[in-house]
Amino acid sequence: MAMITIKEYAAMHGRAEVTARQMARRGGLRTARKQGRDWMVDSEEPYPDRRRRMGEALTREGMEGLDAQERRHELRIAQARQYSRVGKYHSTFAANLERVPAGLADQLTPEQLGWVVDLLADAYTDGQRHPDYEWLQADGD
To answer: Residues 57, 60, 64, CA angle at the centre, nearest 5°?
Structure first.
């Protein structure tokens, strides 16, 4: 894992430095870290370009009757679903999304929200694999 400056990262991917810096600030680059006043990124991190997918999310059925605020909310959820590993499992994604407090969900970027949903799904799965899981269930009855 070789860390490079945001300027080198942007040049390597043919992007403007300011665009890559904004992406790092907003949490769009998973490995981006601030060192002093400079942003550093892992040279192996792919440049995330989800423009086409987000356009597809906007045209999905069921978005026609929504007002602007509801449409923005649905778009954020669609974006978070695409960033999430469990996003393709709609019921799992929805169940874990409900566990995120609304105030926190509003403060997170769609990518961060996808990560939180994944963490909650992982915690649930790890709990079911716990050696004392059967004992804990029997004790709760």
So the answer is: 115
CA 99 – CA 119 distance, rounded (Å):
11
pTM: 0.49
pLDDT at 59: 57
The type of residue at 90 is H
Q: Quote the CA–CA distance of 8 and 47 in Å, as a whole number.
A: 13
Q: Which amino acid is at 43?
A: S
**Residue of 45, 21, 43 whose CA lies nearest to 34:** 21
- Calpha distance 72→76 (Å, rounded): 6
Question: Is 22:41 a contact under the CB 8 Å cutoff?
Answer: no
**Residue 62 — pLDDT band, cuts 50, 70, 90?**
low
Between the CA of residue 100 and those of 1, 105, 112, 116, what are the distances in Å? 32, 6, 12, 8
Neighbours of 57 (CB within 10 A): 18
